[in-house]
Design goal:
Blueprint (H helix, E strand, L loop, with lengths): L2 H16 L5 H8 L3 H6 L6 E3 L4 H5 L6 E8 L3 E7 L4 E2 L6 E4 L4 E4 L6 E7 L2 E7 L5 E11 L1 H10 L28 H9 L6 H9 L3 H6 L6 E4 L3 H12 L3 E6 L3 E7 L4 E4 L2 E5 L3 E6 L5 E7 L6 E7 L5 E7 L9 H8 L2
Antiparallel strand pairs: 1-7, 2-3, 2-9, 3-15, 4-5, 5-6, 6-12, 7-8, 8-9, 10-16, 11-12, 11-18, 13-14, 14-15, 16-17, 17-18
Length: about 350
Amino acid sequence: MNRMTTQLKDRWEALKSENPHLRIRNAAEQLGVSEAELLATNVGNGVTALTDDFAALLQEVEKLGKVMALTRNNECVHERKGVYLNPDFSNPHGQVFVGEDIDLRIFINSWKFGFSVVEGDKKSFQFFGKDGLALHKVYLTKDSNVSEFNALTEKYKAAGQLSELVTEPVAQKAAEKPDSEIDIAAFQQAWKDLKDTHEFFMMTRKFGVSRTQALRLAPEGFAYKIENSKVVNVLEDASEKQLPIMIFVGNRGVIQIHTGDVKKTLWHQQWFNVMDPDFNLHLDTTKIAEAWIVKKPTEDGEVTAVEVFNKNGEFIVQFFGKRKPGNPELAEWKNLISGL
């Protein structure tokens, strides 16, 4: 361990002694480093650096049994318990797990560092981008197979167990094009002609519009801005009405989806939370900059979402009514949305 790494480790230890409940992500922010750099200072002391063959490792995670998958961004944390089932890594641009519990869209080209972490009685696999930002974590539960965790850690252990990481910044998002440079009429017609919600992203790319710009320029009746406080109403109403919904939270490396009921909701300071046995959500309501109701035509009829953004126009969370391709949207979800 070099001198700079030793100094960072010492600073972290001092910070923990002052605030023993401080999470590593917040500690990294206070120390001016990435979470991955901070974690790496403990390589050899409960932390094992992994090879970058993340696709192979992920396709063996099913062996762990029931685990907790965690994906977050700066504003929202999504935690879902279950088994990693039905992996499909055939598409180099996007990989998936499609299970009733663990439902993920993965962009593995964004992944750079991986660790096996043992901290007290907590065991996990943790994955980070090239800038050291946490993208996805897999935590063992009381029902997980610990011997398989140990075996996978040994199998995917990197040859060099370095306590220092070299991170690099991620390319900044391009500036938004002026509205005057967008063919608004053609864009609005393309929106009306959508056949599938998954076509929406490619449509925004084709016309060179950002996501929030697309909502501003939407054809009449297809996007409505709502008060930020109404986002909480979506969860409260779904809980009260026992309405199954879909909740998408992601970052540049993963999108994680919960499909089903939300039951126990509660506030803690500025955080609004879902605290169910197999699903937890933690939303920092102070960081919501915009919230929209968005309607997209599909072959199964109109699909309605509530989309929530931060001050940089980046997704925080998306809500849909529970549905599968081939089925129309739930009438109860439409009623909930109309109540907003």
